[in-house]
Amino acid sequence: MFHSVPGVPRAKTERFACNNTGIGLHFGSIWGYFRPLFCAPKMVNSDKKMVAMKTLFKSDPKLPIYSLSEQAVTIEFGGEISQDILEVITGFDRSLNQYPFPGFIASVPAYTTLSVFFDPVRVIQSDEMPGAACFEKVSAYLSQLHEKLENTTVATGNIVTIPVCYDAELGPDIAEVAKIHKLTVDAVIQLHSTTEYSVHMIGFLPGFAYLGGMSESLATPRKGTPRNAVPAGSVGIAGKQTGIYPLQTPGGWQLIGQTPVKLFDANRVQPSLLKAGDRVIFKPISRLEFDHLVAAE
Amino acid sequence: MKIRILKPGLLSTIQDMGRRHYLSQGVPLSGAMDSLSARIANKAVGNTDDQAVIEFTYADAGFRAETDLLIAYAGDGMRLQCAAQILPPERPVFIPAGTVIQLIHSSIGVHTYLSIAGGWEIPEVLGSRSTCLAASFGGFKGRSLHAGDILSGIGQLSAISASLLRILKNEQINFAKWSIPRQLILPANRKVIRVTPGTEADWFNSQSIVDFFLAPYILGRNSNRMGFRLEGPEIVRTKNDELISTAVTPGTIQVTGSGQMILLMADGQTTGGYPRIAQVASVDLPLCGQLKPGDTVYFKEISQREAEVLYLKREDELSKLTTALKSIFL
Question: Does B279 touch chain A (CB under 8 A)?
Answer without folding.
Answer: yes
